[in-house]
Every structure is written in structure tokens, then in C-alpha cells.
Specification:
Layout lengths: L2 E5 L14 E8 L10 E9 L2 H7 L4 E3 L25
Parallel strand pairs: 1-4
Antiparallel strand pairs: 1-2, 2-3
Length: about 90
């Protein structure tokens, strides 16, 4: 299921890069050993100056004009009292 995206943004939900650039991310699912097992995973792989440079290295990547970032909720996790994470405050 792993695939790559090339993203044209220099500012996203979780980062800011004033130099701009093009970012390559790998997408897949978290492994069994992770508390996020089975949920979508997005990992930074590389940075380039242009889309053409990124496509040369990752020819099968999908080029996006925006960000593929997706907010992750941890409310499925419970604390030691069985209260969903983030709900007991």
C-alpha cells in the first residue's frame, strides 16, 4: 500500500520552511508494534528545489498542490482508568 507524494508547499500543518522547496512523503500504515497500528502513516523522505528534481528520483510519486497532512486523533487510546485519552481533563 505504500506510495509517495511530491508536495509543493513550504508551510504545512506541522512545519514551516521559509526556503520553500518540494517535499517527498511516503504513505502507508503504521506497523503492528505501534500504538497507531493500522492507521495511515505519512513520513518525510526528501526535499528538492523543483518538482522535476523530485520526479527524477521518485517518478511514480503523485504531485500535489497542497499538503497530504491528516490530523491524528488519539481518543481511541485509554488511560489506566479506562478514560479515553484527552477526555479526562
Amino acid at each position: 500500500m505504500d506510495y509517495y507524494t511530491i508536495e509543493l508547499v513550504g508551510q504545512g500543518q506541522t512545519y514551516f520552511d521559509p526556503s520553500g522547496g518540494v517535499y517527498v512523503y511516503e504513505h502507508g500504515a503504521y506497523e503492528r508494534s505501534s500504538v497507531l497500528h493500522g492507521q495511515p502513516r505519512r513520513s518525510f523522505i526528501d526535499q528538492f528545489s523543483t518538482v522535476a528534481e523530485a520526479q527524477k528520483e521518485y517518478p511514480n510519486a503523485k504531485v500535489l498542490e497542497g499538503s497530504s497532512y491528516v490530523f491524528r486523533s488519539l481518543t481511541f487510546l485509554e488511560d489506566s482508568d479506562g478514560v479515553p485519552f484527552g477526555r479526562g481533563f
